[in-house]
Amino acid sequence: MSDIIRLLPDSVANQIAAGEVIQRPASVIKELVENAIDAGAQHIDVLVTDAGKSSIQVIDDGKGMSETDARLSFERHATSKIREAADLFALRTMGFRGEALASIAAVAQVELRTCVEGEELGTKLVIAGSKVESQEAISCPKGSNFCVKNLFFNVPARRKFLKSNQTELSNILTEFERIALVNPNVSFTLYHNDAELFNLPAIQLRQRIMGVFGKKINQDLLSLDVDTTMVRVSGFVGRPESARKKGARQYFFVNGRYMRHPYFHKAIMDAYEHLIPVGEQVSYFIYFDVDPGNIDVNIHPTKTEIKFENEQAIWQILAAAVKETLGKFNAVPSIDFDTEGMPDIPAFESSPYAGIQPPKTTYNPDYNPFNTSAVPPSSYSSKPSRDWEQLYEGLEHHSSAQHIQKSYPDDGDYFTAASMEQPVTPTLYDHSEEAAMGEKSSQHYQFKGRFILTSVKSGLMIIDQQRAHIRILYDQYLEQITRRQGASQGMLFPDIVQFPVSEVPVLQEIMEDLSYLGFELTDLGGGSYAINGIPSGIEGLNPVELIQSMVHTAMEKGGKVKEEVQSNLALTLAKAAAIVPGQVLTNEEMNGLVDGLFAVATPNYTPDGKTVLSVLQEDELEKLFK
Known about the structure:
Blueprint: H1 10-21, H2 25-38, E1 43-49, E2 55-60, H3 67-72, H4 100-107, E3 109-115, E4 122-128, E5 131-138, E6 143-149, H5 156-160, H6 165-182, E7 187-192, E8 195-200, H7 205-213, E9 221-227, E10 232-238, E11 250-254, E12 257-259, H8 262-271, E13 284-289, E14 295-296, E15 307-308, H9 311-328, H10 395-401, E16 406-407, E17 414-415, H11 434-438, E18 445-447, E19 451-456, E20 459-464, H12 465-483, E21 488-498, H13 504-517, E22 520-525, E23 528-535, H14 543-557, H15 562-577, H16 587-597, E24 613-617, H17 618-623
Parallel strand pairs: 1-7, 11-13
Antiparallel strand pairs: 1-2, 2-6, 3-4, 3-6, 4-5, 7-8, 9-10, 10-13, 11-12, 14-15, 16-17, 18-19, 19-20, 20-24, 21-23, 22-23
Helix pairs in contact: 1-4, 2-6, 6-7, 6-13, 8-9, 12-13, 12-15, 12-16, 13-15, 14-15
């Protein structure tokens, strides 16, 4: 039997490693910029062309590399950060596994120019697909200059699955922001297609956050700082009134490294319990400084998942620190019973009505209502009538003609039908039974301001009015996008919506679909847009929050397929414009809603899969009264 196990060639092994480390252009920028920071750079320039698909250039003023180091840096597991296994538990640098440059060179064409301080000449190295094409001495400034071109040129399948330029640029900006937020002492610039997107000087942390996300965020931040023997926690948390459903800036950093940590996120959200509405989020920028021996950063290829030795204890410290910050800055609402400084209430004697006497009543103490011969009180002008039956004339007729509306005083809701007290088992309406809706009742009943009850051939139909409206509006908006026939209503006073740099590419990607919905936006520069028109029928909604919500939805869902982005936009707008639970509807409005629901192709479910209606079968109703 012949041997079948063989060692992979280095070129193939490097491509496999690159699949874990280099997933998109943003991964290249992350690795190169982190290496520059490890090299002691004080200024870093990032230049990107076509969202990194054509070229990525990272220039730093760090310590640079010698000719030998430059060549070795592209070998697998070649690193200056560790010498033995024990060093893995005392890491203070970003890169340490020696995979980044080897992985980049395996799937791209790389040119490196580097020079060590004090040397007259530096080194130029050209590598493509892990193969060294040339190496020569050149004159260049101190530091390193990496130029990465044609990413995934030798892996067509990987290149084909890259997203649109706007999506890839958004990923690049996200990685860039994470690095910039944790290194305020380093100045950065970022250019895309020769246009400057970021120019961040070395500055204090709070000013760096403002430089990345805009000055407006400053008013929402509360500073936090607590130092214990186990961990130091510092940074900023958002004020409760700045909470939002989407788009909150939430960042954790440990020892200068960005991380995701759902457990610590819950600690912060628990501190805001009862301070913000359910489902909303606040921004936070939390920085942990711990002993490197108490964390493990090597459990994930991108090092964004980090394991802590004392997670529960740090959770308690973090939660207490956030609560203390909220209390210190009076972010927690309180009731003030202090009456000092309140105006005096004038005495009754000083009132202009002091001379007015209260009314007095008179009565006859000798009057006996049971003595028929007694004289009535002097205040009565005539003897009271004894024909008491006349007082109730007409009440019997009024009672029989009265509407049978029943009021429930416990919750104030009304239900114009008999109360159903016993449990029932409703079923979904079978849309194939067209005859059922053909005999639907023209009279509908609203229950608890949420459900519409109507009679159909098979029984009693119960419809969730909000979900039904979402279903109808979604189909309308999606058709407007598809047919490019959205009706717009001009605004007398245009609103201004501001986006951070990382969200602008996403907005530009969905701008065309927004215009089909009826939004008219004008680019004012610097991430600001004027809202000149909104879709007809959404009056009363906040257009700024609505557009921001749609951009954040597009960021969360991604833009793999244009149809998916369009569907997400239509659904977001439908949810915002739909009627709310508790809204009272007239019978004509309910009739229009029911007719509109059954005019769509799939009335049973909302676009995101929630049940719209159920039918209580007639035999189920009969069982209730046996």
